[in-house]
Amino acid sequence: MAKKITISDMIFMNVVALLGIRWFATAGQYGAASVILWVLAAFLYFVPMSYIFAELSTVFPNRKGGFVDWVKEIFGEEVAFYSSWFYFVANLFYYPTILTFAAVCIAYPISPELAQNKLFISIFVIVFVWIGTFINIRGVNVLAVFAKYGGIIGNIIPIIALVILALLAVFVYNHPIPTNFSFDQWIPDLNTGNLLFLCTLTFAMAGGEITSPFAANMRNPKRDFATATLISALLISVCYVIGTIALTLVLNPADIGAANGIIAVIEKASRNIGMVWLASIIAVLIAVAGVSGTALWMAGSIRMFVKGNDEKYVPAFMRKNNKNDIAYNALILQAFIVTFVFILTASMSSVESIYIILILMTTIQLFIVYVIIIAAYYKLKFKMQKGDKFRGAFESPGKKTGAFIICFIAMVSTVATILIPLFSIPADTNVLVYELEMIGGPVIFFLLAYWIIRNAKKKHAKKAVKTN
Known about the structure:
The protein is 73% helix and 0% strand. The protein is mostly helical and 468 residues long. The longest helix has 37 residues, at 431-467.
């Protein structure tokens, strides 16, 4: 019998999937006010969504399709397919962002100039997409071990090291703090540009659903998954705040880049205390987290898409499992598509541009899925009869009033994260191209999903007629 996933395994799986050290650099560009923005992102999105995931997981604890199965039970198979489809497509753009950051980290100890070498970044991303694929083919238990130790080595240790380096540089070696921490700098100015920045931090905290299909592999899914989800939410939120503060103690926000900011901070902090060699070690450890996180996201996305959908929507060759209960053909197909997507984006002018456009292409499609999940939770709590089938071992605090508040806050922040980028065009960006990417992409993928559903229905109807 396969070894069961423990609560600690699930916490580390969440940490490696959701806690991205790369986001410290994104937040650090905002200076002292980034702390308030992290807190807002946590309470307006991460905490309410964690409650939603925790409760839905206990209502449907043994489903290998994760959130797709939740949506199917509540809204039916067509809406479930749309949710899994948008999730699958969003992640095709997301995997390369994680690996691009990992490539920038691994470039530092080899040769810092490689961080801006598109050929090196492209080779790294493509190679590790395939390595992650073959790790997944080995099975969930291998993935859990890989994610657990990847989380410790690549996230926890580098965060602790970053904090210690920053404190030593400032309070022992007396290096000046380059960031203005006066009281007025802590209050964010929520203009249009900064609201877009808040949406980015909200996106950084997204992904709590990725481990939902693995709840069925826990000993007591109703109790253990909810516990692991809520502990993970607290741990990840605290790490984001502490890590960002540590970064701004070392580097001026104006000098922090989204793709290479962390490496710049670690390199400077290490030099400040006379231990430059330490930066190379930490950079490699952070790259380990990127590879581990990618492997986990690839497994979760495919498992939800394949296991959560009816067989008429997902071709038989994609549903074929190996002895480890892994849809290996679907994983291999996914790796080919991600490779193709990254080759297309690699034609952009710089590594930083590649990194940013991939994030933008992910955000809106991913948050469309969250709108569906929140709506499903609302229907479950307020529109469905509460028999044993729809009652879980865990319920969000405050009964129906609490559930309504959670739904309202989560829905407002999720819809805002979709809409604000549409009206907040970055500087030096072609408006037409930007809007085509932001609006055209989701529309095209919706039409593709509609076409798949329509054809599946036709084939299913013809098959039913022949059978009769």
